Amino acid sequence: MLALRSSLTRAVAARTPAPQVCSSFATGPRQYDGTFYEFRTSYLKPSKMKEFLENVKKNIHLRTAHSELVGYWNNFAHRTEVRKALAKDKEWQEQFLIPNLALIDKQESEITYLVPWCKLEKPPKEGVYELATFQMKPGGPALWGDPFKRAVHTHINQGYTKLVGVFHAEYGILNRVHVLWWNESADSRAAGRHRSHEDPRVVAAVRESVNFLESQQNMLLIPASFSPLK
C-alpha cells in the first residue's frame, strides 16, 4: 500500500488456466501455462483505508470462493465465468462489493502473463515486496526481451534480491513489464541495491537494457494481513 494523494492497494489474482491458451514472450519458448495475472490497483480515500482493509479482511473469503488469491494475487475464459458467478452471488455483493465501492476513488485492472523464462515463486518467509514497473520502447520483446532477461537474471544470480515473478502486459498499456521482488526487510533491500550498483556485471547488464527503457516506477509493498504472500 502506498500513501500519496490518495491511498493505494495493489491486488494480484491468479486466474485458473483454460485449455490451449498460450502467450509468447517472442524471444524464448512459448508460454503454454495459460495462467494470467490481474494487477488490480484501488485508489482509496485516505480516511477510508482502515475501514476498507478491515472489511476486505473480514469478507475476502466471499471473493476467494470464486477465484484464487495469490497476493491481494484465474485465465480469460475462467475470469468471465467468475464474473458471471459473482453477479449471482448476493452475499458477495451485499457484504463485500457494495460496502467497498463507496471507499474506492478509482480502480485499474491490467491483464498480464508470466514470461516463459520464470515461474511464480513463493518467498521463504515474511518480508517486504518491491514492484518495479518498466515501460519499454515499442517493438515488443523481440526488440528488448533478451537484454531485459539478462538484467533480471544478473540481479538474481548474484543474490542481491529474490524474484517472485516477471509479468508482461497482454491487455492495457503494451510493452509494460512488472517485476515483483522480495526482500527480508526494507533495509536488506537497500543494502542489496547498493551492492548491485557497485557490481560491474549488474551495471553492464542494466546499461544494455536501459537502451530500450522509456520509464520506470518502483513501489515498496507491505503485505496486508490477509495476503497469501507475506
From TrEMBL:
GO biological process entries: mitophagy
Pfam family, one: NIPSNAP
Record InterPro entries: Dimeric_a/b-barrel (IPR011008), NIPSNAP (IPR012577), NipSnap_domain (IPR051557)
Residue ranges occupied by any NIPSNAP domain in the UniProt entry: 73-119, 129-228
Gene Ontology cellular component annotations, sorted alphabetically: mitochondrion
Family, as annotated: Belongs to the NipSnap family.
PANTHER family on file: NIPSNAP-RELATED, PROTEIN NIPSNAP HOMOLOG 3B
Protein name: Protein NipSnap-like protein 3A
The organism of origin for this protein: Camelus dromedarius (Dromedary)
